[in-house]
Amino acid sequence: MARKRRKPKKNLTYRAAGVDIDEGEKLVKLIKPLAASTRRPGVVGSIGGFGGLFRAPTRGMRDPLLVSGTDGVGTKLLVAQAAKRHDTVGIDLVAMCVNDVVTCGAEPLFFLDYFSTGRLSARAGAAIVRGVARGCREARCALVGGETAEMPGLYTPGEYDLAGFCVGVVDRAKLLDGRAVRPGDALVGLASSGVHSNGLALARKVFARRELAGRWGRRLLKPTRIYVRPVLALAKAKLLRACAHITGGGLTGNLPRALPRGVRARIDRSTWRVPRLFAEVARRGRVREREMFRTFNMGVGMVCVVPRAKLSRARAILARDRVRAFEMGRVERGCRGVVYEPPLA
């Protein structure tokens, strides 16, 4: 005997199914002035259409190249959700994308974000996008659009995910691809602001949930530093041969990506002080040095390769931009990779 399908007691609506269109429209109204605050030359129109419009500033470039990058915030979002603080992860989202793009010598032009959640709160969503707008202003990058998706059943209420996409431009003649790196070049480290947005899966293992909602959570949530201005200043002064954004994989995995074949990086670990947060993670989790340096940035968010003869000038430019920088090693002949002094345990 066939089973009868139960009829709903009343007419269903999208809202009853878990998607609140009115809340979404409320969020769009809150976002519009935030996006407007990031406006820069090249923006055409405003958000709300089916696509973001931008006129690329290619005047004076013989062979302009578009450089794109996409990333997320990872499990740092779980820390934000535990701490009920949502106003900084948007900065992380922008930083992870623009810091990648600028390593090519490209000027970030515009940014789009994707925000998905189980139950939309216009207030929480606006806090997130407020961080995105702040990051875009710091990177001089326009927020030209995005997407908000309410997906009940895929996320539980209170959970959300973020992804971002950035486009920049560089003249091919000024592209930083590592081919100009030479043995003897200096490695200049730019200090990180903390863990940035990598290694949080490991960091969360060593802190109790109540700690993530308190002091240690606040330290883990410190936004990723944006390096666009100092890196472009070095590139404009023709002092930069290559650049590496230190993300997942740490110095061990990321620095070789900026080097050509036949050279390696030799790093003097005594040249900077590893922040206490990393030491606390290592102590609590009994994590070996080798694992720490291939998981976290260890206090170095970006490494710039600079000709040794121009090191003083480069440091003066970084100081002018109030960037804490330190000479942390050199480039030498050898198999592409990283050598640490003293060696990692």
User: How much strand?
Assistant: 15-25%
String of helices and strands = HEEEHHEHEEEHHHHEHEHHEHEE
Mean pLDDT level: 94
Largest sheet: 6 strands, mixed
CATH classification class of the largest domain: Alpha Beta
Radius of gyration: 22 Å
CATH topology value of the largest domain: Phosphoribosyl-aminoimidazole Synthetase, Chain A, domain 2
The secondary-structure class comes to alpha+beta
Helix content: 25-40%
Spatial order of the strands in the main sheet?
Answer: 8-10-7-11-9-12
CATH architecture of the largest domain: Alpha-Beta Complex
Q: Can you tell me the number of structural domains?
A: 2
What would the principal axes of the Cα set say about the shape? globular
Treating each run of at least 4 consecutive H or I residues as one helix, how many helices?
12
What's the name of the CATH homologous superfamily of the largest domain?
PurM-like C-terminal domain
Distance between the termini: 70 Å
Low-confidence stretches: none
